[in-house]
Design goal:
about 200 residues, alpha+beta, three-stranded mixed beta sheet, about 15% strand, 2 domains, 8 helices, two-stranded antiparallel sheet
């Protein structure tokens, strides 16, 4: 059992801005700009997570429909943390109109989530295994937050390398057993040396 101090609800960014599948793209653009975010989870009328959408999806959709050569690096909501497509998005948001195109037409249906009580090691493993930089946090089926690699790094920096925050119960028990075994070996060696010196 892990003894990490932090779980997802301690690290996550709360008050997540979500959009719906039927949200028009021009509305999505306004939401992203207003809230200074690169993307948002997509939820249906029941509040169930059905996908994610990002600035990258908007740029790629525009490039595809205009038959331009795709210049993006296939970054998505989960991995685009440095805004490589910022200039392209800014240009599109000012001059492009998407008509009746909606979020469901461009969103990514890939869903990567964790639970609000998942430990920091669990979050890190998900990100490492999935090769992503963001994970959506759910609680009882509802989106309650987002945790990024930066959130984890910040938490780790406050713990301090080698602190007790990184020690598990299994590791402590194993260390105790090894120390006890070492003490027995040392005592046996002392007994042997005593006998040798006694015989001399």
């Amino acid at each position: 059992m892990s003894t990490y101090k932090f779980v997802a609800k301690d690290l996550m960014t709360e008050k997540v801005v979500c959009v719906h599948p039927d949200t028009p793209i021009h509305t999505l653009i306004k939401i992203l700009i207003k809230n200074h975010i690169n993307g948002a989870p997509v939820v249906n009328k029941e509040g169930k997570l059905v996908g994610v959408v990002s600035k990258t999806d908007i740029v790629e959709y525009e490039e595809k429909t205009s038959k331009k050569q795709c210049q993006s690096s296939k970054k998505s909501f989960y991995s685009d943390t440095n805004g490589k497509l910022k200039k392209a998005f800014d240009k599109i948001s000012k001059v492009k109109t998407f008509g009746k195109t909606m979020v469901k037409n461009i969103m990514t249906s890939r869903i990567i989530t964790a639970q609000s009580d998942d430990t920091i090691d669990r979050l890190a493993k998900i990100m490492f295994d999935k090769k992503v930089h963001r994970v959506i946090i759910q609680d009882k089926g509802s989106v309650v937050g987002i945790v990024s690699t930066l959130d984890i790094l910040h938490a780790v920096s406050t713990m301090g390398y080698g602190s007790s925050a990184f020690v598990t119960e299994e590791a402590i028990i194993n260390l105790q057993e090894r120390l006890e075994s070492a003490e027995k070996s040392i005592q046996s060696l002392r007994d042997i040396l005593s006998k040798i010196h006694g015989e001399e």
